[in-house]
Amino acid sequence: MYGAREAHEARNSNRLLAIRLETNKSCNLRCRYCYAQSGEDSAKIAGFNVLKRIVSEAKELGIRSVVVIGGGEPTLHPNFRDLIAYIDSLGIIPMIFSNTVLMTEELAGFLYEHNASVMGKLDSLKPEIQDYLAGRKGAFEDIKKGLENLLNAGFSKPVAPGELRLGVSFVSNKMNLEEIEEIWHFCRQKNIFPNMEILTPTGRANDELEDKLLTAGEIKEYKLKLLEIDRKYYGYDWLPYTPITASGCLQHLYSLYINIEGNVRPCAPTKLDEHPALRIEGEYPYNVNKMTLREIYGSDLFTYVRNIDKVLEGRCGNCEHMEECIGCRGYAYSVGVNNGVGPLEALRMECQQCFK
Measured between alpha carbons, how far is 138 from 127 in angstroms, rounded to an integer? Predict the structure, then answer.
């Protein structure tokens, strides 16, 4: 993530700060909330030369980081290490989302040496809940071991106060709600960034976790409690209304998401490429194999996307915190299109999670 000042300066100067890159859909877990519906049965893998070309085109637009998000588990890609080394060689920070199941001591050391940051996974401290959410028995123990290897490699030692290189994602839902405070303390005490996300009604979650979505009241209660904990014990203060707890999400202003087929989105759950209204002669045109990244970035659609803060509706449209929070556009989009709203209208709807 980048802060509000950096995000707005980048947007205003037409500079891209980051791309999020799917490398493969194969995964050794089958998470019940997966937006990409990845699993062991998927064989989709992006070619290494294609990935290098995308990173190279993004560098020309000014990026400072590449988020290797897999779409599945990126460490399964046959050229994973080559990709990380290439990104690092360009002076760009590799940022890897991994379930850490394959995170050996040696791999953790390789990533540390190549200036990478890592976002792991920890949906629960209870093996039975973590295994259920991950869709595989034994996942908890594998994840735990991988995180230990990252900690031992030095990822828990900040370069400077607040400059963390290790985080863990946990998707808040009714199954882990009672242990969120415990997970939060675990992260803070080990210098791990707690990337708490809210279960979003997209992908596999629509079928498997529909009854586990949190209410607005539950979200409000736990966010205010975590803010109290941070102020009391760890010296952090943050805006509680932002979609990611303790961190705003302004991706739409400075980032692009490229999925395994080469289709470009604003972020993972903002699946513009799947909406029929944005297809031309049956195909989504904003694809890195049909257009350059610069052409896509400069198109009318993506110009609209990165200026979305200027057309927000409802409470978001007149919020005094708009400089640092535009709500979760992905959640608003998912809810909107699920209810038959057009894609551009859905994108500017008020945040469905805000309790302000």
Answer: 8
pLDDT of residue 42: 67
Which amino acid type is present at position 159? Answer: V
Q: Which residues are 172's β-sheet partners?
A: 198
Q: What is the pTM of this model?
A: 0.93
Tens-digit pLDDT profile for residues 187-211: 999 999 999 888 877 788 888 999 9
CA atoms within 13 A on the CB side of 160: 0
Structure letter (DSSP) for residue 178: G
Nearest to 154 by CA among 194, 101, 118: 118
Q: Which residue has the tokens 């960034």?
A: 193
- Measured CA to CA, the distance from residue 195 to residue 198 in angstroms comes to 10
Over residues 244-291, the pLDDT tens digits come to: 899 889 999 999 999 999 999 999 889 999 999 999 999 999 999 999
> Tokens representing 1?
């993530």
Give the Cα separation of 156 and 289 in Å (integer): 39
C-alpha closest to that of 353 among 196, 235, 203: 196
203, 246, 266, 289 from 273: Cα distances, Å:
14, 30, 10, 14
Beta-carbon count within 10 A of 189 CB: 11
Residue 266 is classified by DSSP as S
Residues 9/248, Cβ–Cβ less than 8 Å: no
The β-bridge partners of 342 are none
State how far Cα 75 lies from the chain centre: 17
* CA Rg value for the chain: 19
CA distance 279 to 124: 40
Q: What are phi and psi of 240, to 5 degrees?
A: -80, -5
Euclidean distance between CA atoms 293 and 239, whole angstroms: 33
Q: Transcribe 300-340 into DSSP letters.
A: HHHHHHHTGGGS--HHHHT-TTTTT----HHHHHHHHHHTT
Flag residues of the chain having pLDDT under 70: 41-42
Per-residue confidence (pLDDT) for residue 195, from 0 to 100:
92
